[in-house]
Amino acid sequence: MVDQVHQGNRKNNYFGKKAWKYICDEFYKRTGLKWDKEQLKNRCAVMKRMYIIIKSLLDRSDFSWDEATGTITASDEVWAEYTKEHPDAETLRSSGCPIYKELCIIFSEPATNGNHDHPAEHEEGTPNFHQLEPLSIPQEVPSSSESEEADDGVDDKETVQPITPSTTGIRKRGRKGIDDAIAGAILEMAAASKLRTAAIQQRDARYTIANCIKALDEMKGVDEQLYFAALDLFNKPTAREMFLSLKHDKRLIWLQGKCRAAGPVP
């Protein structure tokens, strides 16, 4: 989504069909999860609400954003007082939101210089989101003229009903659903991150220098000059991955070509 925003493919606060196709394809490449557009649109809506909730927290002077850790910081007394009224905020207190910077790029209104709001920057003239009651539920109301585009995007026109005795109870009852969804989104993102980390670790464990040397020692027709040239080549992770991914009968030819291109070994 961030890539599509940077490429200018989010028009009138919507991603088009081509942008959603790209997002679905990239999500699958990065996570291995085959989610369709509707699933990602639903998750996008949850992340948007998460962005608004976190931003409303950070608009308070007693909360601040720690970009290094991706957490919302405040004193224990401030958190204790806040979570008494909003117990669902414990999720944000404990887990934070490591992707908040990216959420700012996706969901914030562009400033006059073309940039987007940043969690650590509150420059004068930067469009601000509606002043929200912390952890209230924004209601999305797309107009009829937007109905066709709404099929391919998440509406950015958030309206919040005035807080009255009659609506406060509804808000409190409704909060649990959205906060459960946000908590679920955080857990899913954490799980996806763990899957990516595990996949990277598994890949790195396979394409090690030791495994390359073991495969090299098992090959026939490798003279001393080619052998030591190959050891230098194995310092490159991409070369190790390519070498071990080739069929056994192709490795010698590939090594000879690579080492010849690198020049003679002194």
From TrEMBL:
Please note every region of biased composition (Acidic residues).
146-155
- The chain positions of domain Myb/SANT-like read 1-82
A single Pfam family it belongs to is Myb_DNA-bind_3
Matching entries from InterPro entries are given as:
LIMYB (IPR045026), Myb/SANT-like_dom (IPR024752)
- In residue numbers, the region (Disordered) covers 138-173
Q: Please give the name of this protein.
A: Putative Myb/SANT-like domain-containing protein
| Taxonomic path | Eukaryota, Viridiplantae, Streptophyta, Embryophyta, Tracheophyta
